[in-house]
Design goal:
Elements lengths: L22 H4 L8 H11 L4 E5 L2 E4 H17 L7 E5 L4 H12 L3 E4 L6 H11 L3 E5 L17 E5 L7 H10 L13 E3 H6 L17 E7 L7 E6 H14 L8 E4 L6 H13 L3 E4 L8 H8 L3 E4 L1 H8 L14 E4 L6 H13 L6 E5 L9 E2 L12 E2 L4 E5 L13 E6 L6 E2 L3 H7 E3 L5 E11 L5 E6 L4 E3 L2 E3 L1 H9 L4 E11 L3 E10 L5 H15 L8 E4 L13 H5 L9
Parallel strand pairs: 1-11, 3-4, 3-5, 4-8, 5-6, 6-7, 10-11, 10-12, 12-13, 13-14, 26-27
Antiparallel strand pairs: 1-2, 8-9, 9-19, 14-15, 15-16, 17-18, 18-21, 20-21, 21-22, 23-24, 25-26
Helix pairs in contact: 2-3, 3-4, 8-9, 11-12
Length: about 575
């Protein structure tokens, strides 16, 4: 029995959103199966259906399972066993999913790492998880060549974006990349993905060992409730529930439909909703390793997706594209926005754009976080109220509480959003204190996930997001945790103090602005270029400050704390210029 199944014997209070679901949908039973088991079931039902499409190349369900089986053999031959952690630092290429499911089949854990992370961030992701292997995109060898000796990584397997392309496109791509990046060495510790696959040659599959719903499957990186980077451990059960919930509510989604996977695999939203869920429903996922927002409409015309999920900036990009004069979007059934607030003006403009291009789809919002495997609430089909983030998905429970007393607030009152679900995380890896802060047992006997986000619920169960209690910045859908950025900048020898805030941006919603106090003897004129380069090296691209302001001191509140609100409204230049 899992902790998620433990309840006190009290009659539950009727929940206002229950009227939108059938009884069996509200009482979802999770079978004792793994992520890989779900793919095997789909393959048995739809063996010749497409599972993955990548630059025109197609992988059927039957072929996908064969590829996963070969990878699982190679992993075992390299000594990977149940409970071991292997890092996947890849963009949205088929190998990222094939390796993940290969790991899942043998009970190992996939640590999903952002390939655009800075050198030190990749090192931290490897060290904190004791990763034994690293699957790395070959373009970024320069990011790991100086850090591998400080990790426990035994072997690096390099994947090329061309590995799953058809031979012609693959050849063209490889030629185009000659001389553009530093080549990785070829030795026992550094091998190509093709060499890795050949390890399984002439090896038989062997007996299949099953791993259940409560087995840890994936690690996703998150700032948690405090904003410091953490490793979120997600079980198999969470991926099953997310897929089942989607299948139950997206009634127009049928086997053979497709999802455009623009959201990245290292993001819970991208991995669960855009990739794993379609594969459990007999649909296929269209994998896009790099996304060109200026050609979004052309991508639509080429791929003709049924479902598109993304952040608001992605949909802003779509309606501003003018490459296709007669774009037909009649094939589009679902358009879902998450990761940030969808402004009412953008919602209206997107819906108008859909109508102009022959689509009956209307954009809806969802809400989630890594600790609950991305999706918690969703507005769908006719169950929608403009401006809301929807109602809890079937089987999820949400309440709005007073953060100080944990008492449930009345409808319409703003408080902290807390969640009970059978799909939230096991906890933060090796961090019991933060786990206990995030997952708390309330008086009703349920374990509730405290999100640190603010919102209110109306009498129909629709939730309206009101902002972040935690000081987090969301830039183009990516979470930026100020404390992490500040810590990195303050490590520079010239910096005495740094505070970062989020400021509005017309396209990215928010960007980072850094206020920096230098140590005595330093002047911004001489170090500002150096600090910019330092940030580019040590921070992921979306975390690098958009603006740098140098001050002699930072404003304080009456309690002596840095006045963040004052800084957000501060448009003055440098003090020393």
């Amino acid at each position: 029995m899992s902790i998620f199944d433990v309840f006190r014997k009290k009659k539950p209070i009727p929940e206002p959103w229950a009227k939108y679901y059938k009884e069996e949908e509200l009482n979802i039973k999770i079978p004792n199966i793994s992520m890989f088991d779900q793919i095997r079931i789909s393959a048995s039902r739809y063996p010749n259906h497409k599972a993955i499409e990548y630059f025109g190349s197609k992988i059927t369900y039957k072929k996908l399972v064969k590829k996963i089986n070969k990878v699982s053999i190679s992993l075992k031959k390299l000594g990977i066993k149940q409970g071991d952690i292997v890092s996947i630092c890849l963009p949205n290429v088929p190998e990222s999913l094939i390796v993940l499911y290969g790991l899942n089949k043998i009970g190992a854990i996939a640590n999903m790492v952002h390939p655009l992370s800075a050198e030190e961030e990749i090192k931290q992701a490897l060290v904190s998880t004791n990763s034994k292997l690293l699957f790395m995109i070959d373009l970024y060898y320069n990011k790991i060549e100086n850090i591998l000796e400080d990790t426990k990584v035994e072997k690096v397997i390099y994947v090329s974006a061309a590995d799953s392309m058809n031979p012609f496109l693959g050849t063209v791509y490889r030629i185009s990349q000659i001389g553009k990046f530093k080549r990785h060495p070829h030795n026992k510790k550094h091998i190509s993905y093709n060499q890795f696959k050949r390890i399984s040659n002439f090896e038989k599959l062997g007996p299949y060992e099953r791993f259940g719903a409560n087995t840890p499957a994936v690690i996703i990186h998150s700032g948690g409730t405090s904003g410091t980077p953490k490793n979120v451990v997600i079980q198999n059960r969470a991926f099953y529930l997310g897929a089942k919930q989607t299948g139950d509510i997206c009634l127009h989604l049928k086997p053979g439909d497709c999802c455009l996977a623009i959201m990245p695999n290292f993001h819970g939203f991208g991995l669960s909703v855009c990739m794993h869920t379609p594969l459990t429903l007999g649909c296929y996922t269209i994998m896009i390793p790099t996304f060109d927002s200026k050609k979004f409409d052309t991508l639509f015309k080429k791929t003709k997706p049924t479902v598109v999920l993304g952040v608001p900036t992605l949909f802003e990009a779509l309606i501003n594209c003018h490459n296709e004069r007669h774009l037909d979007l009649s094939h589009l059934k679902y358009l879902i926005s998450g990761g940030d607030v969808l402004p009412k003006s953008l919602e209206d403009r997107v819906n108008e754009y859909m109508s102009e291009h022959n689509s009956k789809a209307r954009i809806t919002q969802g809400y989630g976080l890594s600790e609950a495997l991305a999706a918690v609430t969703l507005a769908h089909d006719d169950v929608n109220k403009s401006g809301s983030i929807g109602i809890p998905l079937p089987g999820n429970h949400v309440k709005i509480i007073d953060p100080a007393t944990r008492k449930t607030l009345k409808y319409g009152k703003t408080g902290e959003i807390v969640i009970h679900s059978k799909a939230f995380m096991m906890g933060y890896l090796n961090d019991e204190s933060e786990t206990n802060t995030a997952l708390q047992i309330h008086d009703d006997g349920h374990i509730w996930l405290h999100t640190g986000d603010l919102g209110y619920m109306d009498e129909d169960g629709f939730i309206f997001y009101q902002g972040r209690a935690k000081r987090m910045i969301i830039s183009s859908g990516y979470n930026v945790y100020p404390s992490h950025v500040e810590e990195v900048i303050e490590a520079h020898p010239a910096v005495l103090q740094c505070t970062v805030v989020g400021i509005p941006h017309p396209y990215k919603q928010e960007v980072v602005k850094a206020f920096i106090v230098l140590k005595d003897g330093y002047h911004s004129l001489f170090v500002k270029s150096e600090i910019k380069e330092y940030c580019k090296k040590n921070l992921a691209k979306y975390m690098v400050p958009y603006q740098y302001v140098y001050r002699k001191k930072l404003p304080k509140t009456k309690l002596g704390k840095v006045d963040f609100k004052a800084l957000q409204n501060d448009n003055r230049g440098n003090d020393d210029e």
